[in-house]
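Convert to structure. Protein one:
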Amino acid sequence: MFDSVLVFSVLTLTLGLVLGYAGVKFKLKGNPLIDQIDAILPQTQCGQCDYLGCRPYAQAIASGEAQINQCPPGGQEGVDALAELLGVETLELNAEHGETKPSHVVFVDEQVCIGCTLCIQACPVDAFVGASKVMTQVIIDECTGCDLCIPVCPVDCIHVQEVKPTLTTFVPNIAKVKYG
């Protein structure tokens, strides 16, 4: 009788240790719903939704603090995709946060740029390369078209170039498209 109690105690202790280790080793980091919402958002990091970027907006949606219709770059398609994911009724895109614009990137007019670096400081995705008093350039593949650099430029040398999706550049649900 004592032997069977000892065997079951050792077995229970062993299984407890295995389950405890598995719980620590395979623990989900963060909320998977936030990751799913964030994957639908366009990743422009523009702040038009009143949050500092797409991830904070995704967290606000998941916690119920924000509506699903605050992202102009995602457009009505983004709102519809979020509604489908969350199993809620779709809403019209909230015009208070801006309007949906065609996909675009920015470029710098080299003849006008004075190298002030204000655009570098304003860019949330580090799409600019340059230094003080040196002409700045845009890394086209990194530019999300958030337009946060345009109002800070003191010499208006930043211009918009529309990106026309082609079969080789169109990737759904990803804001980064190659310069077409």
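Protein two, convert as well:
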Amino acid sequence: MTQTIRNRYNITVTGKGTQPILFAHGFGCDQHMWRYVATAFEAHYQVIRFDYIGHGKASREAYNRERYASLQGYAQDVLDICQDLDLEQIIFVGHSVSSMIGLLASIQEPDRFERLIMVSPSPHYINEEGYTGGFERADIEELLDTMDSNFFGWATVMGPAIMANKERPELGQELIHSFCATDQAIAQQFARLTFLGDNRLDLAKIGRPVLIIQSIADDIAPVAVGEYMAQHIPHNTLRVIQAQGHSPHVSAPAETIAAIQHYLQATNS
């Protein structure tokens, strides 16, 4: 692994196994969000975590607005990491928008990936005729306008809303802190890619098995989204867990770990 790539994406490699399991964080977060889940796989896998540019401890100087004008730029980040670490037979675990980033990476270089695990994914957040995404377009545009005019205020409201679990306010506070630690200009562009993007047509192009982990109550990606994805991804397993909110890997790590482990054991037997 070159020092340049290691520093650029703040790559962390742990674990005693040889097969790589690559954890990719969601919008406004960093690899720390995987701390409860990733460690459960260190006994049997090579566990790899990283930060996208502008997030966590990744290089902010490496940000290129043209490269990151689409999610394909972030997919190339994933592929650059895989190429530099010479990873094969990858189990890719992506949260939220990273599910779509992993999807794009696997379409571009399918032979590198063994399977994809998508935690709280959504290919499109906006309601359309015959499709329930969870939001009206006006709601998304208002959300993005608020982010532009008052980023801290937006983070203060959205952190607890995304995390849910009102009886555990410390979870929402963690997400607020994570949002505010992200480079604001990068976050604003990434948010537009996330909430205005439409990857529905890409679902049929996935050539690898997929596990979809869906929270039973998620205001950001409702169960209808998981069901839609299950109908349009060729080889998939949909697992609805009894978790609240959009970040079950933080709020319900035991359930998330169990869903992943059960899937891997069932598909490897």
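DSSP finds eleven helices and seven strands in the chain. The mean pLDDT is 95.
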